[in-house]
Write a structure and sequence with these properties.
heterodimer; A: alpha/beta; Rossmann fold; six-stranded mixed sheet; binds adenosine-5'-triphosphate; binds magnesium ion; transmembrane (chain B); ArtM/GltK/GlnP/TcyL/YhdX-like (chain B); MetI-like_sf (chain B)
Chain lengths: 242, 217
């Protein structure tokens, strides 16, 4: 489903991604962890071409992401993305936020788009907020709307870049619950997070990055019990100690 | 004491001038807003040649006097076979000139919209233009209402440039009445009042919009 082969990326002289090789299969949940600045966001953002790669091969859903001849919007409609800061559209209601892309990209009629939106709002537990504006919601509620917005496109892949990092501790759980549910239903998910409990419980695989490289890749039981890399040990000790 | 008889005796002229100034302003306003939005998008679209084109337009146009631009339309175009009446030439000049300033205002408004908005919209499969239309511009508009209002007020005042090429606007008729009556001060006071009739409601309207938009998010 997602295939990185010898992918490198530079920002000018700065080498952000170094020889990335990674395969993610359909239905897998892969959690990416690593210290700040290690390239986690960049890696995830390459998958839907919010960032372009400098060399190597990246194939997503059988499409060469960086091929000039592909229709990137066609690929993107199959990939949902959830951001750290939600990025809801502040001038639109929750319902409008969710129905916009289905209506404008998939050309689904308004009535049907609204029904789908309501279905996903129920799923994330806030159908009563359909007509609210984002500014009237708590962080956790906003992030759940963002997830519903992604799901309403019925994507094959969902990308999460630190979806709970901007949330108050008491609302983190409600967002993680939605994500766990999604994982259980077989969604292919790539998640950058510092929530080790979530990683341990939900991930099929943990990918540990440092300084632009993937240093270790292992199932969570194995990774948490017995990390092979010294830097992964140090990182885990630091993060689990608070 | 103002000589009101001047106003009453030449009411038709004042009114015709006022109407033409209003017409030129409205036309130039709509046109310059449209051109301004397009130039602003040229300047920020991820396409190099368009960036250069947009930048060239803004730098070129806003650094020449308005009167000169109007002359280009009025006496320059006939040289290549396009003949425009003074009103049209003046309005077009005003439109093209104001568009450069509006483009800059809109560009800064667009840049003030957080970049996560563009990322969220593009990652959902919307095209660049759809994102602009549904996500970025509606938010940018709120940011640019006050500076845009200033540009519109400037536009109304700048429409007096039509007088220079006999464009039948307020200024033109002011000059005419003054040369007929040999009165200057009173004539132009009335001209000024007519301009205020246009600019003050505009100013109040912008303030009202600003307050209303501040309430919605
Ligand atoms: N647009 C950019 N231009 C130049 N350098 C960048 C750019 N974006 C990111 N970087 C640099 O690339 C490196 C990797 O950034 P990235 O955001 O992928 O890290 P991260 O692992 O997601 O970190 P964090 O945990 O802080 O989010 C960082 O050192 C960052 O400063
Ligand atoms: Mg990051």
């Amino acid at each position: 489903m997602i295939y990185f082969h010898q992918v490198n990326k530079y920002y000018g002289d700065f080498h952000v991604l170094k020889d990335i090789n990674l395969t993610i299969h359909q239905g897998e949940v892969v959690v990416i962890i690593g210290p700040s600045g290690s390239g986690k966001s960049t890696l995830v953002r390459c998958i839907n071409r919010l960032e372009t790669i400098s060399s190597g091969e990246l194939i997503v859903d059988n499409v060469k992401v960086n091929d000039k001849h592909i229709d990137i919007n066609q690929l993107r409609r199959n990939i949902g993305m959830v951001f750290q800061h939600f990025n809801l559209y502040p001038h639109m209601t929750v319902l409008q936020n969710i129905t916009l892309a289905p209506m404008k990209v998939l050309r689904i009629p308004e009535k049907e788009a609204k029904e789908t939106a309501m279905y996903y709002l129920e799923k994330v537990g806030i159908p009563d907020k359909a007509n609210a504006y984002p500014s009237e919601l708590s962080g956790g509620q906003q992030q759940r709307v963002a997830i519903a917005r992604g799901l309403a496109m019925k994507p094959k892949i969902m990308l999460f870049d630190e979806p709970t990092s901007a949330l108050d501790p008491e609302t983190i759980g409600e967002v993680l619950d939605v994500m766990k549910q999604l994982a259980k239903e077989g969604m292919t998910m790539v998640v950058v997070t510092h929530e080790m409990g979530f990683a341990r419980e939900v991930a099929d695989r943990i990918v540990f990055m440092d300084q632009g490289r993937i240093l270790e890749e292992a199932p969570p039981e194995e990774f948490f019990a017995n990390p092979k890399e010294e830097r992964a040990k140090v990182f885990l000790r630091r993060i689990l100690n608070h | 004491m103002l000589r009101y008889s001047i106003l009453f005796d030449h009411w038709d002229m004042y009114l015709q001038g006022f109407t033409n100034t209003l017409k030129a302003s409205v036309l130039a306003l709509i046109g310059s807003l449209a051109i301004g939005i397009i130039i602003a998008i040229f300047r920020i679209a991820p396409i190099r040649p368009l960036n250069w084109l947009g930048a060239a337009y803004v730098e070129f146009i806003r650094n020449i006097p308005l009167v000169l631009i109007v002359f280009v339309f009025f006496v320059g175009l006939p040289a290549v076979g396009i003949r425009l009446d003074p009103f049209t030439a003046g309005t077009l000049g005003l439109m093209v000139y104001t568009a450069a300033f509006i483009a800059e205002v809109i560009r800064s408004g667009i840049l003030a919209v957080p970049k996560g908005q563009m990322e969220a919209a593009r990652s959902s499969g919307l095209t660049y233009l759809q994102t602009m239309r549904y996500i970025i511009l509606p938010q940018a508009i709120k940011i640019v209402i006050p500076p845009l209002g200033n540009q519109f007020i400037n536009l109304v005042k700048n429409s007096s440039v039509l007088g220079v090429i006999a464009g039948f606007d307020l200024m033109y008729f002011g000059d005419l009445i003054s040369s007929e009556t040999f009165v200057t001060f009173d004539v132009y006071i009335f001209v000024a009042l007519f301009y205020l009739v246009l600019t003050i409601p505009l100013s109040l309207g912008v303030g009202y919009l600003e307050r209303r938009l501040a309430k919605t998010r």
